[in-house]
Amino acid sequence: MTNHARAERRALADLLAAVGPDAPTRCAGWTARDIAAHLVLRDRRLDAAPGIVLAPLAGRAERVRRRLRDGDYAELVTLVRSGPPAWNPLALPALDRAANTVEFFVHHEDVRRGAPGWAPRALAPDLSAALWAALRGSARVLLRRAPVSAVLETPDGRRVTGGRGGPAVTVRGLPGELLLVAFGRVDAADVTIEGAADALRAAPLGV
Q1: Closest CA to 83 of 111, 60, 103
Q2: Nearest to 44 by CA among 12, 67, 21, 15
Q3: Same domain for 106 and 14?
Q4: pTM, two decimal places
Q5: Does one domain contain both 79 and 129?
Q6: What region does 206 belong to: left with phi over 0, alpha with psi -120 to 50, or beta?
Q7: Which of 143, 144, 175 minimizes the C-alpha distance to 157?
Q8: What CA–CA distance (Å, rounded) separates 51 from 35?
Q9: Last-in-domain residue among 52, 80, 112
Q10: Considering only CA atoms, which of 19, 18, 25 is closest in space to residue 107?
Q11: pLDDT tens digit sequence for 73-113
């Protein structure tokens, strides 16, 4: 079984090294350096990482991330590439796949699509299947703040739904592209949108 989390990590580290620290990304307000620091925080600072998702702890997480960001960029990229140390449960292959496949796919695309001229990748079928499974399991959480009735639909008719209700919006695209939409990268995704597109774009989607 391919560990897509590791493959996406390696590809992202290569790209971070190639584009340099100040390259723009599709993660709002962040450069390549910011994304690298975020990923090192997840891997190596378990004392601060909970603040990524827990609002009361967010201030500490952001302070630690900024300190990491202001360090040596080449070292940050090396740490991203090497992954979590053995004492981090995310070093276990099963947990790595569960926690990092989506994380590294999204941030890989954040960097890939940060400059003009990007094109969607042709994803391996098993990676596409893993991304669809992740979206199916998390769509309601990722779309929970959207003031719409959202349907995300693949070309072969698979659907997930979410949102708080209101104007209808249907987004069609491949699983990886729909996942990017659910994480708030609406304008960076290769999708078609019918209905309340502006309300979807303005919503604070994602975790």
Answers
A1: 103
A2: 67
A3: yes
A4: 0.95
A5: no
A6: left
A7: 175
A8: 16
A9: 112
A10: 25
A11: 999 999 999 999 999 999 999 999 999 999 999 999 999 99
Beta carbons within 8 Å of 146's beta carbon, 6+ residues apart: 162, 163, 164, 199, 200, 203, 205
Phi/psi for 47 (5° steps) reads -75, -20
Distance CA 167, CA 163 (A): 10
* Six token digits for residue 18: 């190639």
Q: Can you give the pLDDT at residue 59?
A: 96
Gap between the Cα atoms of 196 and 181, Å rounded: 14
Please state whether 88 falls in left (phi above 0), alpha (psi between -120 and 50) or beta.
beta
Q: Whole domain around residue 72: which residue ranges?
A: 4-112
Specify the long-range contacts of residues 74-77, CB closer than 8 Å, at least 24 apart.
74/17, 76/33, 76/36, 76/37, 76/40, 77/13, 77/16, 77/17, 77/36
